[in-house]
């Protein structure tokens, strides 16, 4: 029936109506694609409902007797998929593509699990070990025609470039040589060989993930030949695997620039055309690879060194992690346990859960990594490299992370913020190794402490000398407000508590209540690690155990009175600001607690408080029978709404930013509208430094720059200031106007003919912070007349970003000292240096010798100068001066030279390049603007 003309006509009419006439733009595009490619097996099938039903029935009819999955079978299949490599994050779905992968996984897993060498696999291994080659490339068999063609194309290039290329084929039974270093091999034999030999796997089709998962040591090169939705067996699962491969691949390339839009979160993706040489590809495959540069780079990343695993009990650390991610920051939440293999899992948009493996300890509670610092440093570097983390703040939740946090600050410039939730200074538990002394060390060396209570703020003040702001706990109001409203009538009232039950829990008080209120049930939801025997002594105390965070409102809904029965004699409770207090109130519940210091401001309005059992009982009884005088449900809920985690996050994020020195970036403009726009737009779109202001000063431009700046100013961008000089004050005078308006701890003078790259401010600031004798520093560049010039390889903005990222990573922490002068095309200067040495000398005409002059002033005042190799700025070089005719240029040069030599009573020396650099080098690397 599905093949009948009636159904085909009905299908066509439905798609015409739903997609072309009433659909959105995407649906219209898919309709036209389907219409043009209906006979094509590679056509997009997502909008072919009848076709999907047809194929599903065909698959079912092919099975003699098919039964629905039982629950056990479904769970077993889900578990199998969860453990299945690249498919681990894909839900349980049925599709022809998924069935293809499952079948391959079964075959390939059997080969890997029951590994045995054969004559052919031994020959492949021999070729790998004996043929001189720059590396080993392998490609499994492919069902997609385009991917097959591209594999041949790429492997021919790579073989000529000196790589050993192993192309799997089902049409050969032995090793066959196509050309020098290009071999056709049987797929199963290739898989056997790769069980003991590493390789780079070229995957041009998502259906090859099963083969990749069966290879133990590999890097994945994912190449997109055409639109992913035109691939063989394309469906929703294919799209998910495509996304997972983009996340996992070490290298990503595509056959057409138009396909870059399909390579989400892979700004490092490279277009491979017919003109791309094998040598160029070889350089890519020889690099560290796996760089996930975010296309948007305006907000700093957040690294959380946690106290609990993300999937444990959902508490303050997870709430902050989620909200940072929702507000546009990439968050890397590093789990406290370290017994699992190293991995990075994308939990949600912008939120990544990270596991580090430690062979010496199963969790951070038992180690501070001091016995194995190389291991944690290598793990952190790998994470930073792969995800392009160049501007970040580290949040430390547990003291034993102190060495890791210090490393991130010293090596990469990431400031340390302590989310101080518990007092660890007096911990003596043997299992929690060094935690007390590490807590003191952390408080003394961090950049900011944010305690969750006054008690903790008082402790922090003993060790931390800076300002301390408290950010207390909060509630996920909408989540817990689901429990708001009157309870359904029930035979017995419920007095409830949820949370952990440990040594600080007053179990005797609960028993006392249970004995005196036998008509009530006392429900405890949470893990019980102590007092279980005591609590089980009363039949009306119900221990329900740990329950998912998502289910807590359903339990809270049934509570008539909520308890917080903590032992206030312990320092732990004195330091505690109970989360559940705000959560209870979100549901408008009556709350009775012990005399917890952090709850004292709310006593007798939102909570009754008593330590003695009899008074505690009286308060609970009053709440049960309605004779209490506490605030009503609506008032409690309104109070809780004001204490939502979003408000706490905003306060925390604002405080956290103060840990980072403020930088004032001053860009002086004079005509060159296109360059002004490029420079400014790049700063705003590619600068994720947490605390900077941009001051744009115009020197009376006449080419439309002033009008554009007025339009920009009208946008009221929070950290942008526009200053329009009525006269051209020259380079020094214009910059001095910006310096006077600056409020930063560091001042950056940046030419308008520059293009900054990611991490530039953090890198330069790091060098000034690590060396108190360094007065100012500048980056390396493609074009300048001194040692800041380095050899580059790029010709457009995409190439610039890739080159800058790899170059600065390779030279992280390196400096070029003993320079005669820093060129002011981009220079970061301490504000204290400016206060000591004064402004730029505006006696120099037009704009020459100011950099020599100011460098001389800074050096004379006793400060050091450095060019830092881990910050790169593209420089168009001389965009203003090139407009001067030769005679005028020479005249200005002579006047300024004379002024410099007379002022400093010394002969000016010509600047020099680094060894190997020349004036002509990089001439072809200027950008088209």
Give the structure's gist in a few sentences.
The chain is an alpha/beta fold and 929 residues long. It contains 33 helices and 30 strands. The strands form four sheets. Strands 22, 23, 24, 25, 26, 27, 28, 29 and 30 form a nine-stranded mixed sheet that branches. An eight-stranded mixed sheet has the order 3-4-2-1-5-6-7-8, with helices on both faces.
User: What is the overall number of helices?
Assistant: 33
Unreliable stretches, pLDDT < 50, 5 or more residues? 37-93
Helical fraction:
25-40%
Helix-strand makeup class:
alpha/beta
β-strand amount: 15-25%
Secondary structure tally: strands: 30
Distance between the termini: 61 Å
Can you give the mean pLDDT? 87
Largest sheet: 9 strands, mixed
Name the overall outline. Answer: globular
Whole-angstrom Rg: 33 Å
What keywords describe this structure?
nine-stranded mixed β-sheet, 33 helices, 17% strand, eight-stranded mixed β-sheet, globular, 929 residues, alpha/beta
């Amino acid at each position: 029936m599905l093949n009948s003309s009636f159904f085909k006509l009905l299908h066509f009419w439905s798609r015409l109506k739903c997609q072309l006439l009433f659909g959105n733009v995407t649906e219209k595009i898919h309709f036209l694609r389907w219409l043009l490619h209906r006979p094509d097996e590679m056509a997009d099938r997502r909008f072919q409902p009848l076709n999907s039903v047809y194929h599903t029935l065909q698959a079912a009819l092919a099975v003699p007797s098919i039964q629905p999955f039982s629950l056990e079978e479904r769970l077993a299949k889900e578990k199998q998929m969860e453990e299945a490599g690249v498919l681990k994050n894909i839900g349980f779905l049925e599709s022809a593509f998924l069935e293809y992968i499952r079948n391959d996984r079964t075959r390939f897993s059997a080969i890997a699990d029951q590994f045995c060498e054969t004559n052919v696999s031994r020959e492949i291994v021999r070729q790998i070990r004996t043929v001189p080659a720059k590396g080993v490339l392998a490609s499994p068999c492919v069902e997609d025609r385009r991917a097959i063609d591209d594999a041949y194309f790429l492997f021919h290039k790579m073989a000529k470039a000196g790589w050993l290329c192993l192309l799997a084929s089902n049409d050969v039974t032995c090793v066959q040589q196509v050309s020098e270093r290009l071999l056709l091999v049987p797929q199963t034999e290739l898989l056997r060989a790769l069980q003991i030999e590493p390789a780079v796997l070229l995957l041009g089709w998502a259906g090859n993930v099963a083969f990749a998962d069966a290879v133990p040591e590999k890097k994945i090169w994912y190449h997109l030949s055409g639109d992913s939705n035109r691939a063989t067996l394309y469906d929703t699962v294919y799209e998910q695997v495509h996304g997972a491969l983009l996340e996992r691949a070490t290298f990503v390339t595509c056959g057409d620039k138009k396909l870059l839009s399909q390579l989400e979160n892979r700004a490092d993706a490279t277009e491979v055309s017919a003109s791309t040489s094998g040598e160029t590809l070889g350089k890519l495959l020889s690099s560290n690879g796996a760089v996930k540069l975010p296309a948007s780079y305006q907000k700093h990343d957040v690294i959380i060194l946690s106290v609990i695993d993300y999937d444990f009990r959902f508490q303050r650390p997870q709430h902050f992690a989620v909200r940072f991610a929702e507000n546009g920051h990439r968050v890397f939440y590093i789990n406290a346990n370290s017994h699992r293999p190293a991995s990075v899992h994308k939990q949600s948009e912008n939120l990544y859960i990270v596991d580090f493996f430690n062979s010496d300890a199963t969790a951070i509670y038992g180690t501070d990594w001091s016995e194995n610092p190389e291991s944690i440093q290598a793990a952190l570097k790998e994470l930073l490299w792969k995800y392009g983390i160049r501007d970040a703040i580290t949040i430390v939740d547990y003291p034993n992370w102190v060495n890791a946090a210090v490393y991130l600050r010293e090596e990469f410039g990431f400031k340390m913020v302590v989310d101080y939730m518990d007092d660890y200074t007096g911990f003596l538990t043997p299992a929690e190794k060094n935690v007390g002394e590490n807590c003191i060390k952390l408080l003394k060396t961090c950049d900011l402490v944010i305690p969750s209570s006054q008690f903790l703020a008082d402790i922090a003040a003993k060790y931390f000398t800076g300002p301390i702001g408290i950010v207390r706990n909060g509630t996920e109001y909408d989540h817990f407000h689901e429990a708001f409203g009157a309870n359904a009538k029930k035979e017995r009232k419920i007095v409830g508590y949820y949370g952990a039950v440990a040594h600080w829990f007053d179990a005797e008080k609960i028993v006392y209540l249970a004995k005196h209120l036998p008509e009530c049930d006392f429900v405890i939801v949470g893990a019980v690690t102590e007092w279980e025997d005591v609590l089980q002594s009363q039949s009306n105390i119900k221990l329900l155990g740990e329950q998912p965070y998502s289910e807590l409102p359903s339990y809270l809904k049934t509570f008539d009175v909520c308890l917080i029965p903590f032992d206030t004699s312990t320092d732990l409770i004195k330091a505690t600001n109970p989360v559940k207090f705000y959560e209870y109130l979100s549901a408008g519940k009556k709350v009775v607690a012990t005399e917890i210091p952090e709850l004292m401001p709310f006593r007798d309005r939102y909570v009754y408080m008593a330590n003695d059992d009899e008074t505690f009982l009286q308060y609970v009884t009053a709440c049960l029978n309605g004779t209490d005088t506490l605030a009503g449900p609506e008032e409690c809920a309104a109070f809780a709404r004001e204490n939502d985690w979003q408000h706490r996050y905003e306060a925390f994020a604002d405080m956290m930013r103060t840990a980072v020195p403020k930088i004032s970036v001053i860009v002086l403009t004079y005509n060159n509208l296109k360059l002004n726009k490029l420079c400014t737009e790049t700063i705003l779109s590619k600068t994720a430094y947490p605390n900077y202001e941009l001051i744009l000063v115009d020197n009376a431009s006449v080419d439309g720059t002033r009008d554009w700046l007025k339009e920009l100013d009208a946008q009221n961008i929070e950290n942008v200031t526009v200053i329009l000089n009525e006269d051209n004050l020259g380079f020094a005078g214009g910059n001095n106007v910006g310096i006077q308006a600056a409020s930063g701890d560091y001042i950056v003078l940046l030419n308008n003919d520059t293009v900054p790259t990611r991490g530039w401010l953090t890198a330069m600031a790091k060098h000034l912070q690590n060396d108190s004798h360094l007065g100012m520093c500048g980056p390396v560049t493609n074009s300048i007349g001194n040692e800041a010039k380095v050899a580059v390889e790029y010709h457009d903005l995409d190439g610039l970003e890739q080159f800058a990222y790899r170059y600065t990573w390779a030279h992280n922490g390196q400096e070029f000292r003993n320079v005669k002068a820093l060129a002011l095309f981009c220079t970061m200067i301490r504000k204290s240096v400016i206060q000591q040495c004064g402004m730029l000398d505006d006696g120099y005409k037009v704009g020459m010798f100011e950099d020599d002059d100011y460098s001389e002033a800074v050096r004379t005042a006793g400060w050091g100068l450095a060019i830092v190799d881990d910050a790169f700025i593209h420089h168009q070089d001389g965009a203003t001066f090139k407009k001067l005719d030769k005679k005028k240029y020479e005249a200005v040069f002579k006047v300024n030279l004379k002024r410099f030599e007379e002022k400093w009573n010394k002969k000016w020396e010509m600047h020099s390049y680094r060894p190997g650099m020349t004036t002509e080098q990089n001439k072809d690397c200027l950008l088209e603007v």
